[in-house]
Amino acid sequence: EAQVTQNPRYLITVTGKKLTVTCSQNMNHEYMSWYRQDPGLGLRQIYYSMNVEVTDKGDVPEGYKVSRKEKRNFPLILESPSPNQTSLYFCASGGQGSSYEQYFGPGTRLTVT
Amino acid sequence: AQRVTQPEKLLSVFKGAPVELKCNYSYSGSPELFWYVQYSRQRLQLLLRHISRESIKGFTADLNKGETSFHLKKPFAQEEDSAMYYCALDAGNNRKLIWGLGTSLAVNP
Predict the structure, then answer these.
(1) Contacts of residue A50 in chain B, CB cutoff 8 Å?
(2) What number is the average pLDDT over the span A56-78?
(3) Nearest CB to B49: which of A56, A58, A99?
(4) Nearest beta carbon to residue B32 from set A42, A99, A106
(5) Shortest Cα–Cα distance, A99 to chain B (Å)
(6) For position A46, what pLDDT does the model report?
(7) Stretch B59-72: mean pLDDT, rounded?
(8) DSSP calls for chain B
(9) Mean pLDDT, range A83-87, rounded to an integer
(10) Is the pLDDT at B49 greater than 90, yes or no?
């Protein structure tokens, strides 16, 4: 089944403890992206990747890192999480084409205390 | 500035009534627009895109460049249409999507 998977789905952690949220897609998509969703602010892009070893900042990259060593994986790294990074995180991927569709993962709900 | 505006945070209709979810955009180029839907406890998924001019689950959306709008319409709402709906604009810049804040549609029996 074509899909985007994220792990973990739920995570409660403490300020400053490094964490990684994994994202994997099995559709051979070049494009991958991370979003965070907050009440009243909608979906905001954190980082995106056009292909392996090609990443760039989105609208709210501060406090986050990403890497794209393989086409299928695009982990999101929080080196020193803070409470303002408490949010719902979505990974998405997309293929080629002038009018493309983004496929979303199920979301990771992160709470930083 | 590129922007997508969904003026209604919440829209409540009765089953069988027509529904229109508004989306306005600001973009200087030729826009590509999408509607995404998120049902309760499910992931966000594409509902329809303007370029394909299709009807999905009875929903249609027409791009009106004069009014810079891409409203989502359905003539007879069903309870299973209750969900969060997001309008998105392809900014043409490295595939970045500009998202509206979403409209929560509640279809009451």
Answers:
(1) 94-95
(2) 96
(3) A99
(4) A99
(5) 7
(6) 96
(7) 92
(8) --EEE---SEEEEETTS-EEE--EEE-SS--EEEEEEE-TTS--EEEEEGGGT--BTTBEE--BTTTTB--EEESS--GGG-EEEEEEEE-SSTTPEEE---EEEEEE-
(9) 97
(10) no
